[in-house]
Every structure is written in structure tokens, then in C-alpha cells.
Specification:
By secondary structure, this protein is of the alpha/beta class. The protein has a single domain, classed as P-loop containing nucleotide triphosphate hydrolases (Rossmann fold), CATH 3.40.50.300. The chain contains 13 helices and eight strands. The longest helix has 16 residues.
């Protein structure tokens, strides 16, 4: 097949796709008169390196910019979301692990404020890696995160849970607590292979543990419109999953790791960059779809 290079806009998206996206742009959401109860969204994909943490941080920051009260839950023992927001989780005595293991601990005592107004974080560190083994023999082991989050549901509009790249007990806990799931999916062929297994797991959790759970959408990430491969994968994802695919597409850019090193969301590190624009658009799309108040 002839790999013809399309005309690109500043986001690295083919101009035709950019025009279609502009035609479907979403209005800036109106301010909220009151806050809560929160809607919990799990950021989930068992494949690593697909943009889960990047999306959790930057979507959370974008929603906070629009006046939403947002809580991020770092639910990955690697603690990438904590590090990406400048929280030294490895130095903390109390993290999400503490609240999971001790029902007397109030999660409010663990929450850390971030540099972004309206955006808070429940941090995690390597201690969380022990939680799966310790929860195995607990009664109601799948509901541990649900119990932890229950006291703060009226304090926030949205809770974003950054899951680890696994379909183990921690991820099942996140899916059991969640109202919805966002699946970040790298526009690369091998990233497609695990989606069926993930959707099967979501369906099992819905059937057995959490009937309210639904798939909010699949988010195409790391898109490079200059390559035929990226364009073909995006097309296949859209053909396979239809309306379950967000119209917002997140392009590949060095600015995301740069922002992580600076321990800031891209929305504050480079507010006018195409990556920041894309995550604000995703926030507006979520509100327009009714996934976030």
C-alpha cells in the first residue's frame, strides 16, 4: 500500500480528521452550583505504556480547570501518578495501601493537595504491591477500594483511578468501585490484541460484582498521523468499537514526558500545546456525553 503522507495540523492529526473533530467540538461546560456525589472512573488497560497515567493526570487537571472537584487515586504500586504530580509517595507513611489494609483509617487523612486548584491525589508507593496477596483471604476482598472511597463521595465530582497494567485483584477492586471505565489504547497493532480480554473482564465484573459498571469509552492515544500504521489502527478501532471510541484523539508528543519530569500536568506546563488542547477537549467530551457532571 502506498504510504502517502497526509496534510497535518499542529497536533499531528491528518487535516481531514482534524476538520471532522472540529465539527464535533464540545462546548465549555457550565459551572456547577454544587459538588458531588462523585462518579468514579477507572483508567484501565492491562497493557503498560498506553497512556493510562498521562490520561489520568491530564484529564483530571482539565476537569479541574472547568471547575470540577477531582480526586485522583494512584492505584499502581509504581506510583507514577504520584510522582507525576510531585508527591513524594515513597516518603509517606500513609498511602492508599494503608487505607486498604486498615478499615479504621479515614482516606481524608491520606489525600494530598496538588499544585492544580481543585485536583487532589490519594498517593501510592511500592507498599501497594503487597495488597493483592494480603487481600486474597479477606471477606469482600473485591470491595476494599469501594469501602475506602465511600466517605469522600460527596466531596468530589469525579474520582479517576489510575490502575496498574494488570487484570489482578487491584484492578478488579477498581472496576468494582467504578461507575465507568476509560480504556486508553495506543494506536499500535499489538495494543489491540488485549482489548478483547479486558472487555471480557469488565463484563464479568459487571455481571458478578458491579451491575452499574459501564464502558465510558476507548481513547486512542500516542497517535502519529504521519504514519500509515497509526492511521490504519485508528481506523480499525473506530470500525470495531464504533460509538464507544471517543472522538478526541491524543497525539504522540515529547511534551508529555517533559511535563512529567516537571511534575506538572501538560495543561499547566504547556497550556497552549496540542496535548493540553486535546485533554481539555476530552474533558468537554466527557461532560457532553454525561459521563461527568
Amino acid at each position: 500500500m502506498n504510504d502517502v503522507q497526509p496534510t497535518l495540523d499542529v497536533a499531528g492529526v491528518p487535516s481531514s480528521a482534524a476538520a471532522a473533530a472540529d465539527a464535533q467540538d464540545f462546548a465549555v461546560p457550565a459551572p456547577l452550583e454544587a459538588h458531588g456525589p462523585a462518579r468514579i472512573i477507572a483508567m484501565c488497560n492491562q497493557k503498560g505504556g498506553v497512556g493510562k497515567t498521562t490520561t489520568t493526570i491530564n484529564l483530571g487537571a482539565a476537569l479541574a480547570e472547568y471547575g470540577r472537584r477531582v480526586l485522583l487515586v494512584d492505584f499502581d504500586p509504581q506510583g507514577a501518578a504520584s510522582a507525576g504530580l510531585g508527591i513524594p509517595a515513597h516518603e509517606l507513611d500513609s498511602t492508599i495501601y494503608t487505607a486498604l489494609m486498615d478499615s479504621s483509617v479515614d482516606v481524608r487523612t491520606i489525600i494530598q493537595a496538588t499544585s492544580v486548584p481543585g485536583l487532589d491525589l490519594v498517593p501510592a508507593n511500592i507498599d501497594l504491591s503487597a495488597a493483592e496477596l494480603q487481600l486474597v483471604n479477606e471477606v469482600g476482598r473485591e470491595q476494599a477500594l469501594t469501602r475506602v472511597l465511600r466517605p469522600i463521595m460527596d466531596d468530589y465530582d469525579v474520582v479517576l483511578v489510575d490502575c496498574q497494567p494488570s487484570l489482578g485483584l487491584l484492578t478488579v477492586n477498581a472496576l468494582t468501585a467504578a461507575h465507568g471505565v476509560i480504556v486508553p489504547l495506543e494506536t499500535e497493532f499489538f495494543a489491540l490484541r488485549g482489548v478483547a480480554l479486558l472487555l471480557e473482564t469488565i463484563e464479568k465484573v459487571r455481571d458478578r460484582l458491579n451491575p452499574r459498571l459501564r464502558t465510558d469509552g476507548i481513547l486512542a492515544t500516542m497517535y502519529d498521523g504521519r504514519t500509515l500504521h497509526s492511521r490504519e489502527v485508528l481506523q480499525r478501532v473506530q470500525e470495531t468499537f464504533g460509538d464507544d471510541v471517543f472522538t478526541t484523539v491524543i497525539g504522540r508528543t515529547i511534551k508529555f514526558p517533559d511535563a512529567s519530569v516537571a511534575t506538572e500536568p501538560i495543561t499547566s506546563y504547556a497550556p497552549s500545546h496540542a496535548g493540553a488542547v486535546a485533554y481539555r477537549r476530552l474533558a468537554r467530551e466527557l461532560v457532553a456525553r454525561g459521563d461527568v457532571a
